[in-house]
Amino acid sequence: MPTTLNHPRRRVLQVAAAAAASLALPMRAQTVFPSGPMRIIVGVPAGGAADVGVRALAVVLERNIKQPVIVENRTGGNFLIAWQALQAAPADGHTLMHVFNSFPAVHAVQKLFDLERQAVPITLAGTTPIALLVKGDSPYKTLGELVGFGRANPGRLSYATTGVGTGEHLKMAQFERVGGFKGLAVPYRGGPDAIKALLGGDINFMMAPAIFAKQFAPTGQVRVLAMMDATRWKDMADVPTFAEGGVPLPPMTYWGGYVARAGVSPEIVQRLYREVSAAAMDPSVVEKMTASGQTAAVSRSPEDFRQYIAAEIAWMTEAAQGLDLKS
Fold it and tell me: pTM for this one?
């Protein structure tokens, strides 16, 4: 049975109580941390949704730990440049990296780094619901209609990905297998380019952050066929989940969180967990994340986040089997 079916997302949702309880845990008196400035490495350019969330968290973290917190954008090489920067840092906990869905995808497909062995998880920091979208005037009014056409017409349906072997590509491949059809994956540089292609009729469907659904559905530019989460999205409660639409696709959300390089002591990992979790749930951070369509959420523990990442790697590795990942 695929590991995804036992994905530990439910535990992540118990955010407030876990964060509050963890703040009460004592630190060993001999541990002096942080002893200087901290930095957070981000593998995507400044200005995106992930970067906005990191910078909001950094402001609160700096205030709480009374040390400077510097955000560094290190882009390129399928996150390898950012990863190398993390690995070059001392294993003292003063350097963190923001990771998200694409990191386990690179681990599983390109194998440029080992997310499980070279890093120690700290905590999840937020999630974003995912919607399956078609153009507003699409002939497919339900998920069942889309899948039914795909089964009857192999290769006729096209969908967007953000690149070969990315998390979106792997989830769509899993959708094809579960749905029993074969479509055509079309890579784009990112979500904005993909949504333009959908609106222009260049592709038939795409998975996208739910905020795209909220932006384009009210004007009739897109139709939302299903949500990939385990439950309905509160902002569009009339939209069914994949399971409710008759396709038992394991749930998925976009997510982001923090890791340190392997070798950081358990005491410092726990201190980082408490501080980062508290900052992630600060009202100012929650407000900024909500505005960009994200939901603030933290793991119950570093171990909980480790299991979360392991489950992501497992389903992505399985989904990549048999795919043409050369182009």
Answer: 0.84
